[in-house]
Amino acid sequence: MKNKILEIFIVSIITAAVVLTAVAVGFRLSSGSSADKPAPNAVQTFADSDKSTNSAGSSSMISIPGYDRIIMKAGQKVQEVELGNPKQNKCYMVITIMLPDKTQLYRSGMLEPGKVLTSIEISRKLEAGIYKGAILRYSCYDMEEMQELNGADTIFTLEVKP
Predict the structure, then answer these.
(1) Whole-angstrom Cα distance, residue 48 to residue 142?
(2) pTM value?
(3) Distance in Å from the first CA to the final CA of the chain
């Protein structure tokens, strides 16, 4: 009787260990390999213009990159980022970064398709902390007539590290 109870106990512990290991591995795989890189979430929006159809007559799409999190360094204006206009777009983009209270930290010039910003200068030094609900605003412009097309606001968490 004691041997049967001991056997059940050992099997239960082994089963629990296998399940916990599988959960840990699944969590690790789903969270990605680098904690310091933003996780892009592609957002698609239709261009709002007569110029928004391609030569075949179908609607053109504007690809709007989104991020769950962007990391910056506290106490400095120059920040290393990776923001840009996806190369498949057929429009210019202006990217604006705002704090949750809509304070503008940065506004780019017009970025042609495929252009990526790797270093920006924000308007003020930030204190270390987590700024949930920060805004990335993408304003899109026709490449020939410079008319404004649809844009998008994406919400992200700005993590400012010491």
Answers:
(1) 10
(2) 0.65
(3) 60
